[in-house]
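Archive entry. Fields below.
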Amino acid sequence: MNTESTQQTEVGCPPGQLMFKRKWTDTLRVTFRAVIKVKGGLWGGIFISIMLICAIGAQWIAPSDPNAQDIMSRFAAPSRDHFFGTDYLGRDIFSRIVYGCRIAVLVAFGTVTFSSVIGVFLGVVSGYNEGKKLDYFIIWLFDIIRSFPQIILALGIVAVLGPSLFNVVIALAFTAFPFYGRIARAQTLSVKQADYVKAAEAMGLKPFQIIMRHITPNIMAPVIVCLGMDMATMIVWESGLSFLGLGVRPPEASWGIMLRNGYKYMQTSPWMLLWPALAISLAMIAFSLFSEGLRVALDPKERER
Amino acid sequence: MLKYIIKRALWVIPTLLGVLILLFGLTYLMPGDPASAMLGPRATPELVAEINQRMHLDRAMPVRLGYYLAGVVKGDLGTSVWSGHKVSSLLAEALPHTALLALTSLGIAAVIGILLGAFAAVRRNSPIGGCVTIVSLLGVAVPDFVAALLLMLLFCVLVPILPALGAGTPGDPVDILMHLILPATALGIGWVGYLARLTRESMLDVLDSDYIRTSRAFAIPGKTITYRYALKNAVIPSITVIGLGVGKLLGGAVFVEIIFSRPGLGKLIVDSVHARDFPVVQGGILVATLLFVLANLIADISYAFVDPRIQYE
Amino acid sequence: MPEPLLEINNLTLDYNLGDRKMRALDRINFSLGKGEVMGVAGESGCGKSTLALAILRLLPRVAEIKRGEVMFNGRNLLTLTEKEMEHEIRGQKITMIFQNPQNALNPVFKIGTQMTDILRVQDKYQSGGARKKNQDFKQQAIERLKLTGIADPEARISNYPFEFSGGMKQRVMIGMALSSGTSLLLADEATTALDVTIEAQINRLIKELAAKYGTSVLYVTHNLGVLAEMADRIMIMYAGRIFEMGKTDTVFAAPRHPYSAALLESLPSRQVRGRRLLAIPGFVPPLDRLPSGCSFHPRCAFAKDICRKEVPPLIEVDEGHWSACLLDQKRGRKKWQWI
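PREDICTED_STRUCTURE:
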């Protein structure tokens, strides 16, 4: 652990190169180990792992079909048969929460992948061409999208595209990519000044090669930290859109849809509202703890403390 | 300073132009013929033709864009497909409710958050520090619309002491206030925690800084140091965050207004989305965006007043 | 020796960092005469700055004074109330200028505002708040700036600190710190962060103004070369203890402690060319893991068995010349030859 960190901070040596020469799984392992060493990072990791397990193995974990209706036991309070109770159609809430993990994880990873790939690419290109027309155009593009209140723009896009899981991912990713772009651009501006980039330029490498091999790997740390926090936000917004009836279509088990139903039957069966609310809160805490851990783990200054 | 402000303000123009183009372009994303999409099952050939003509949907794209931009500049945002009212008058009706909600929650959150954070930093080992941690954790863990639902469950269903729905009788300040408490709390609680944590951290940094030590070495009284010297440095990060936060606040207002059934901007947008009343959706998003851009402009300018270094950066 | 202004007796101070306890100052004894300039030298982390901060009681929270007294004009500063310190001592009788002028001034207030705030506080404590106008304080601030040699002070007073260079900021600090009422100036590495040419100017300014007002100076630095010109007497510190103290000329000419000798040996000099400079092996030990006996013994080329066992006391080896080395007496006056 120690040797890696000293290697990476050595002056004049491109840290990204080292990361690439090493197997990427090693890098992942080292980072992960550093994260769970941070107080809270471990708990975040555990929660996220549980979510992932639920998402992948929902059909084995959930005691019953999330969409199986049982008219005889509608609005059942939590009991031994139904840990979390049942909803207005007699569906088992625990099973629906477990299946809800699947949508939450899908949305979180889907949007963040789309938006970070596009955002980082545009940001690096813009930063590399600092001061040129292309740079101004990309900044302009970022600024336009950043001018909208994020969720309201997403709402507008879903409104025209029509509500569906895929459209929600597209809409959320579209509103989020400029934020990655700004980070990537700012990082590129500072990395560009580094000796190893100058050396690569002097050796006659093409801009594309420089961007891909020397700049991008070295600007990822803050982007990755942002990823963690963004996933939490995306889970919330998916729930929000679904809550408004503009996200995932019922009868899919999304936490947002469950909240919507809970809102309707709040007076008689509050557990319909409480369980999905709890699930969202736990997901939020998990991702923010984990991303806080990432921030500390990836920040050399913090690591030395 | 003036140069910075002018430069910052001028940059708004191309951005807003882009915003308008994007909003205009959204109509092209609609699957199929926009007029039938908007009318849905209501569509009859006559209605479709009327909509097409009214919204210039039958014209070429640049011409339509021209009409749209000219309309916006004149303050004409079109008419509602559904009710036939002018979009601008619908927005004018809805806006005060949202503005009241957003300003109340932001104002209260900023004052409480910053003071709580400063206090927690000055009294390092008091229970206030723990409070800040708990409130900020709550703010992270409970997103505004979940908070709204839980508050409603708590104070309208389980312990029914506050009104649940609507914005109160117009002209009755007490009733309006009662209807404001829950939505404003739901919207503001995350900000209290966030700003408190931010202020505490920057305040701790500032209190340990060399220039505060200088003030102490020259016997400046402790209260002056804390609330005149240190606080001005410590609120700098909060100002940017508040500016950017207005976007989140307006977004959060959408959910809160739906949940508490407040006839504001957010509810208007969502209702119009459900009714496929696209001109209203477009106008609503435009107004929300204008508010956000304005808030950021104000934040950046006040930043320049608080932190003199900004001009050269 | 002039009449003493400041007498420090047996001052011992700990830093409590969680479970670690560090002795940052260990039985410090010295006195400083009126109008005298005392240089304090040593490597980083040997307690020089702590000493200066302890006199003004501006120590960080973790510091705890175990025993000793700081007698200033016959009063023990350690037993004064915080209010008495603020009203009579800090910023009036004793002032301090700090290491990094870049951060010493508040970045979001104008220079003039910060200066008039300080002047107003001083005025309030001195004359019990006889009402003066803001304009008077502003005029006073301009005069202070003029004294420190800042060009066009009338205009400069409405600048922000980031519009000043490091040297100019330090001039502002000196202008605030040195006035007719100041009896003692604590200069904590005041010129370390500055260019060499600026450093010389600032040091000259400190010396001039101190002489003008009859102010004593405790000049803390890690640069022995500067002290040769600045100080009447010098004090060499190591790991929280005084190792040697005496007249500047005497210590430079014939150091009695091997550590002082080594420090002098590591100074480049114009007279001797072509000789290798000494680099003292090892580093200052962390204060919570001090070696037994003489804390310098692991790095000392002359260390004997006895150095590992006994803590050397600070004794007067010559008139006005103090040293803390067990081997000194046996070596007599023979100079320490490191190379």
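CURATOR_NOTE: DSSP finds 14 helices and no strands in chain B.
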